[in-house]
Amino acid sequence: MSVLDNVLSPLAQRLLHLITGTANDPTHWPEASRLSVGFAGLGSGAIVAPSSYALDERARERLVEPARELVGFLLEEVRRHAYGRLPVLVAAGLAGLDADVRAVLAEGCGPIAVAEMDLLLGWDVELRALFSEAERFPEPVPSLPEWLAGLPGYLGFARTALETARARVAAIHAGEIPYRAEKAFDDREKRTLGRAVRLALFRDEIWLPELLDELVRGIAVAPTQAKTLPSQALLFEIARAVEQYPTPEAISALRTARRITRHGGVPMQLDRKFKRMEPALADRLEVAFRIPDGRVRREFGEHTAVISTGDGVELSWWHGDKKLKSVPAAVRREHPDEVKGLRELAKLTQQQQATLGRALEAGYTGGTAAPYRRLEGHPVADRLIWEFEVSPGVWRAELGLNVPDLPVRLWHPARASVAEVRGWREVVQGKELRQPFKQAFREIYLLTPAEEAAGHWSSRFEGHVVHYRRLRALFKDRGWQSKFQGHWEEDCDAHRVMAGGGWRASLEHYLSSDDYAEIGRARFQRMTGGAWHDVPLTEVPPLVFSEAMRDIDLFVAVASIATDPEWTGQGPDRLRDYWQAGPFAPLPPSAEVRRDALAHLIGRTAIADRCTLTDRHLVVRGDLRTYKIHLGSANILMEPNDAYLCIVSARGPQPGLFLPFEEDGRLALILSKAFLLANDTAITDPSITRQLQG
Fold first, then answer.
1. Residue 126 above 70 pLDDT?
2. For the range 570-575, what are the long-range contacts, defined as Cβ-Cβ under 8 Å and sequence gap of 24 or more?
3. How far apart are CA 370 and CA 362, in angstroms?
4. Between 98-106 and 111-121, two packed helices, what is the crossing angle to 10 degrees?
5. Is this prediction's pTM over 0.85?
6. Which of 228, 335, 629, 662 lies 20 to 30 angstroms, CA to CA, from 688?
7. Residue 477 pLDDT more than 50?
8. Within a 10 A sphere around the Cβ of 517, how many other Cβ atoms?
9. Quick check: 309 and 379 in contact, CB under 8 A?
C-alpha cells in the first residue's frame, strides 16, 4: 500500500508519477512527453501507435478531476518545495486552473521567474510537460538549447530575462535597491537565468557578450567593501553554463569576475571551472576562432611593453630598439597596477593560444569545414601546414595560410606520402618551428588486419595497467567523459564525442585496485536516429579512428606503470611482470615518431658520437657502461646483463637544442638521460652510482 493511497486517487497518483518523473515509463522526449505516452488510449481504451501519442478530448475530460485533485495536493506549501512549480503548471493546464495556480505561485517567486511562468502558461499541456521533463534531466542534453529556442516566445524571453537581471544588479550598485548578500536573485530566478544563459551561449547571440560582462561584474562584487557577493549562486550557475557552451567573451567575463571579487573562496571555485571551459571551447571551432591573436604593445614614456605570440607567448620590455632583461625600475615604480595587469594578460594569452591550438587540432575530425580563413594574419597560422585545393580533388601543401581564394584544410600526415611527411618534418626542425600542436610529427594509427577481423572492437591497448588518477586527468584534458570508478560500478567506459557529434569513441577501463586501472577494448559508435549505435571498425572514418587511437596511446604512454621509474616491485606478480616487460615492448606509433625526431636531433648534439638508435632503444656509450634507453617508456637497461637502472629525472638536454614537439615530456626525458649517461663518470648522485657499481 502506497503512502499516497489515502491522499490521492489512483488516477491522480499515476498523473503525479508521470509529470514528476517518478514513474518507470520510458522517455520519448522531445517527440512526446511521459504524460501523453502514459495516458495514450485513456479515452478509448485502444492501443495507440507511437506516432499518435497525444491526449484526445475524452482523455482530457477523464483527467480533469484527478488533475484538480493533484493541483490541491501540489500547492500545499511543503509539497511546493518538494516538487517545484513545473509539475503543478502541467496539472493546472489539465484542470483548467491556470489563473488560480499562477496567483499562488507568484507569491513566492521573483519577477524573472514569474515572467517565465507566464510564458509557460501560454503553452499547451504537452509543451509544459516536455519542458518539465527536460528540467529534470540529470545531465545536460546537447539538443536541449536548440529545442528551447524553438519554443514559442522563449528566445525573446531569455534575452529579456538577462536584461532584467543586469538592470537589477545595476540598481543594487547604484543604491536604488538595498544590498543584501546573496539575495539579488532567488533560487527559481537562478534556474531560469541559467536556462537563458545556456540558450544564448549555445546560439552565440551577438547581444550576449556585453550584457554578460556587465552582469557577471555586478554579481561578483558587493557595492560596499564587504567580501560578500550579490549572488554567488548565479555567478556559479553562469560558470556552469559556460562550461557547457563556452565563448571567448564569456570566459573573459568570468576571469574579470575572478579578479575583482573580494570573496576568498570564489577564485578557487572558478579556477576549477576554467580547466573544463578551455577544452570545451576547443570543440566549438566557429566560436574558438574568435580568440584574439594576443599581440599587445603599450607605451610607458620611453619604455614599451610588448606581448608577442610568435614562438610561444612572451612579455618583453624595450627601450627604443633595445630589449631589456626585466621591467624598468621607473615603470615598476610608477605603474605597478599596469605591470601586474600585463603579466596577467600574458598568462591569459598563453592559455588562449593553447585553447586555439586545441581547437585547430579538433578540426581534424570536425563534422563540417572549419572557418580557417578567419585566421589569416594570425601568427598561429604561419606555423602550421595547410592544404589548398588547387583543382577538384587535388590538394597542395604549403607552410602558412598564404594561398587566397581556394578551399583550405589542415594538413594531416595520414593524407600524405611517407616522403612528404619526412620532408615536412625536416622543414619544421630546420626552421625550428614551434607548432601550436603536434602536426608534422603527428602519429598515424591505421586499422590493422586483426582489427578488421575483430569487427566492432579494437584490443590494441588492452591489458595495459595505468595509474587510475593520472588516467582520469588525461581523460579530462583530452575531452573524454567518464564516471569516477569504484568497485561497484558497472559502466566502465570513457567516451569522446567527435566529428561534430556524429561519432563517439569508447574505451573500456577497469579498476584493478584503488590506485590502478586496466585498459580494455576500444569501440566506435555512430549517431543514428538520435542514439549511439556500434559500427564495424572498417566503417569508421580513418581520421576519426586515428585521432581516437592517438588519445588512447597517449593515455597509456603517460599513465602506464611501465613508464614510471619509481614503480619497482610493487603490487602482485601480474603487475610486476607487466612493468618488467616495459623496456622490451614493441614501440607504439607515438614512440616511433619520437624515434624519427631523435634521428634528426642526436646528430646536432655534443654526444652524437656516443649514441646509436636501434629499433626500440637509444643506445648511449658511457665510460663506465653502455645503456639502452627505451624509446617508449624511457626506462634504462645497462649492458651487458640488461640490469635495470632507475633514474627518476635528469637535468634538461643541451641548452639551445630545439625540440620539435613535447606533448608528454618523454622526448626531453630521453635526451636528458642520454646526456647524463654519456658522461657517467661525472655522476655524483649516490642513488645512481650505487646502481652503476652493482
1. yes
2. 571/513, 571/516, 575/465, 575/516
3. 10
4. 170
5. no
6. 662
7. yes
8. 22
9. yes
